[in-house]
Protein 1
Amino acid sequence: MWHQPKAVWAVAFACVVAFMGIGLVDPILKPIADNLNASPSQVSLLFTSYMAVMGVAMLVTGVVASRIGPKRTLLLGLVIIIAGAGLAGMSDTIGQIVGWRALWGLGNALFIATALATIVNSAQGSVAQAIILYEAALGLGIAVGPLVGGLLGSLSWRGPFFGVSVLMAVAVVVTALLLPSTPRAVRATTLADPFRALAHRGLLGVAITALLYNFGFFTLLAFTPFPLDMSAYGIGLIFFGWGLALAFTSVFVAPRLQRRFGTIRTLWVNLLLMTATLVAMAVWTDHKAVLAGCVVIAGLFIGVNNTLITETVMKASPVERGVASAAYSFVRFSGAALAPWLAGMLGERINAHVPFWVGAGAVLLAAGVLAATRAHLPDIDAPEPEIDELSDHARAVTVGNDS
């Protein structure tokens, strides 16, 4: 799995930097609220605008990539992220930051969906091994993001935004130099393709499962810093531990559990354990040690979920991987977009326990949806061909126009 072409490592490095953006702002949510006189629900819009635009933009990623090629799409996404992060760092109001985070989400959409398909199509080995590599990059980025955000945020809340711009500039250079020109597809993808893909009941069921699970995930990510009420550096360390746990289970634990118990059974039990973790956070919201410990423990379950759900989507859908990724991401990011704002509002208007109860309910419902979807995923654990074989077939239906 680790012996891959330079192009795969170039995209994986850029993925690490891109995924840093998810957790990077976590340690500075409270400092931003304090410095700009914003409420928790207002500050949580940094996640909502980012995820909402990312989800909608996923519908056009395939359209763009099929017309200008994957490499140019990746570079375009990275450049947009640089602009969005830099402009957010120069903002003076919460509304401006929320707006530039939306632009950042557009760039991330163009990059992430294309990056997943590029790694799967360019890597050596099986689809599962390529996805583990992708999830390793995701986990590393999510782990490092809060730590970098905490370190730079302890100097100024603007620091993490400027830090992302600099790191993304490095990612642009690495991607431009190491990723070879990639061919455009013979058939250009349309906006209707992701919606047609969702007609496949297996893909739709997994996407709805991911939507509900992400609701709980982003409730934890966006709201927990407020009841913790710690410094940016302290929050950064806690979520760094969360990210390390996520990275560890996504790469090393998820494949072992999958081989022993099967994909669906592992996911179902994992969702129940995630539900129990959020229930504990709801009950003991006033105990910072419990909250901090539950955040790190949740990372263990989130890592398993991320790897196995992504692999299920890539293997279950009968459509092209880019289209499947776009359709799935559009649905799941809807939950990620709504949760931060709703959690902040419920915490303000009722109490700090309620957001975690709502998050737990959403994840429990996700387990129910997955159980109902199982019948539409009968061959999800069947042996798969090596990526090299799939790539030979892909090359037969693509043209060699450089992107």
Note: Strands lie at 183-185, 398-402.
Protein 2
Amino acid sequence: MSLSLIRTVLLTAFSFCLAARSLSTSVYLQAQAKSKKTLAKSGVKNVVLVDGVRTPFLLSGTTYADLMPHDLARAALQGLLKRTGLPKDAVDYIVYGTVIQEVKTSNVAREAALGAGFSDKTPAHTVTMACISSNQAMTTAVGLIAAGQCDAVVAGGVEFMSDVPIRHSRKMRKTMLSLNKAKTLGARLSLLGSIRLAHLSPELPAVAEFSTAETMGHSADRLAAAFGVSRLEQDEFALRSHKLAKKAQDSELLSDVISFKVPGRDIVSKDNGIRPATMEQMAKLKPAFIKPHGTVTAANSSFLTDGASAVLIMSEEKALAMGYKPKAYLRDFVYVSQDPKDQLLLGPTYATPKVLEKSGLTLNDIDVFEFHEAFAGQIMANLKAMESDWFGQTYMGRKTKVGAPPMEKFNTWGGSLSLGHPFAATGCRLVTTVAHRLQKEGGQYGLVAACAAGGQGHAMVIEAYPQ
């Protein structure tokens, strides 16, 4: 046998061995990947998140100031259509969340959908559940699909704090309604003569609990005090949020943000509330709610924000039939509620163990956590409550503590403190971020949790779609 022939035989054998080894390794890795259980349930439709977008979240009173809520919602819907290439007539239903409603467009879902060019034959309705309004919109979509009513639903949320409804006083409204019904000039003059200067005082909207008359910031301050959360801890967490958001923005990880040409203004393509400061600068701010000894300040609270979000949710079967590669499965979810005075913002603590038990998972199974950051004090109080055996036993009927998420998995692309918090739009941002982080980090399970006014809360488990 010639030397060249021997060399060829040896090279062929070596290549075969490498290929066999590579195939063996590949099969082994696939087996490893498949060894982690899926949350698919027999006889239950798989519901998937195909994609999600949002307008840039902007500080209220800035570039969006002259718009209306349905303008932002329309922009988000159009951005979703463009991102997904979705035929408008393929959508069976549209659900949108909002908290402070514009009177002229009370069903903002319908007005935004028509403005975005969806068929007038596509039903749309609006839900409200405070800061978890778009969470409610998404789970409504999941329910419609699971029930076999729909195959493709668009869900979202919008909040516009630059222009909120301001009402006349109750006495003035009553007089004006009576004036509208008066049939004689004398009756009208009599009513006009009854108007007093005090009647002209407007009723301004307040982010306060109707049942307790307490602002959410006040509740956050008391909650922080109850759990021994210091001002320093709150400022450190807020700074962490801004730094991580800035890093994510600079690294182009916030891919759900779409560019939006504001009529008569510039094109906006980035959130504008991300502002990493220094601990020294933050320490100079005075308490915002409980003065002079409170610990909640403008720097460690989420700010008033304008913005909208939208997600496309489908049955897996329909998504694949239309050629889509989903981002994630939307799995188990729960809603909770508790005392709106002393436990107003503890929704994540109550919801997290319930949704984990429902899905048969433990805290250690979760690769990505995204919790809504209303206030740094609220987040830190929840984390301390979750780590407290006493709280778990006394208030939750548990034998031991819930356990807090590890910080290396927690809100690593920033959160509401830095990205902004348009009340009804945040839920979709949280879910879309979990899906993107799972893809980026190679995890399988993510968990979203949020508190809301009224002492309510939400949690959902998201499972990565196989890549």
Note: The first strand starts at residue 47 and ends at 54.
Protein 3
Amino acid sequence: MTPGFIFATGIENSIPTIRNGTHRVDEMEKCGHYRHWRTDFDLVQELGINFLRYGPPLHSTFLGPDRHDWSFADETFCELERRDIVPIVDLCHFGVPDWMGNFQNPDFPELFAAYARAFAHRFPWVQLYTPVNEMFICAVFSALYGWWNEQLQSDRAFVTALKHLVKANVLAMKCILQERPDALFIQSESSEYFHAENPAAIRPAELANARRFLSLDLNYGRRVDSEMYEYLMDNGMTRDEYRFFMKNNLKHHCIMGNDYYMTNEHLVSDDGTTRASGEIFGYAVITRQYHERYRLPVMHTETNLMQGTNGDEAVTWLRKQWANVLRVRNDGVPIVGFTWYSLTDQVDWDSALREDNGHVNPLGLYDLDRRIRPVGEAYRKLIQDWGQVLPTQSVCLQVPVVMPSEHGHDWARRQRAQAYVTRKADTSAPHNTE
């Protein structure tokens, strides 16, 4: 059984399209993972990390309805199982296969849920999932800012993308639970805050701060406030679609994973336009806002900062984020994990993947030659120091995490059997919404 605190990293499988859908940005390809995946798994273990945010590339794995190419997933997940590394499986990261179009496609939720079921059936030892990564950010960048995929810029397109993304996530959770009844879902969602630049900007900032919760409100079956309800209805969501989210509350299977970067806080002008504000409140303050809303265990699922000219900028940011994690925990929030994202440097993050410039961003624990960066050394030391302290003091998960090597143990089988009984009873009981 896993220790009480989850130290993780990730290998990003982003696949958005740009240039009106004609060009795909495959971050695994850009970062060399397809060539160096065995070395990358070596690096994960070299750091003393047992948990990895990871998933197969959706566009080259999901070839059509009931058509899959599992060749790369079979190789990589077999190796993860052999090494006893726990994957937090990221099934959809910012894009869909060409044959599916984009997030305006109303067929996407059901098609994706079937894919999630197929994956869970093929890899029954996998327990932890992030079915759809950063649903809010994906909808904003694809359908409100016009950066990726459908490249639209309207509230109606945003609501359409959002309802499809969240429905896909909910249906995928349901399908995975049918295959693995003790599955746990670690949502990875951006934790945002919008600051009014002046008194005239208070109103648009309030609206932006209400809108930031929409993906998780719908995902967790929490009633949105009246203004956001009108916003959803005015922009194409039907009452039946809204009721679907209220009736499919699976939050008791979930950990609220939230991401925090220097760019997560924004200044709002009186005309509603926004720009980055830099860190003002910080992770601890914003995370408490999210926890007070959803009352779920929390995991810090993404952060990073570029290694700058001084060479210690990323290390300083790591220490700051870890101090915020401890502050959240000491304030009574059940925080169960922390992630530096990603394992290696990223490519074209500086343009939010909107441009294919091949620009390497020094954000990783290792560079793209797989040489450890100072932040990698610091993270390894942090894990060594705190990994011995936190397990005995951490909040226990309601459903224990099963290591890959423990999947066949009697206690793990009993856990799955009990989860199946509980799940059957839960699906037959009426659902309450908050």
Note: Residues 6-428 form a domain with the TIM Barrel fold (CATH 3.20.20.80).
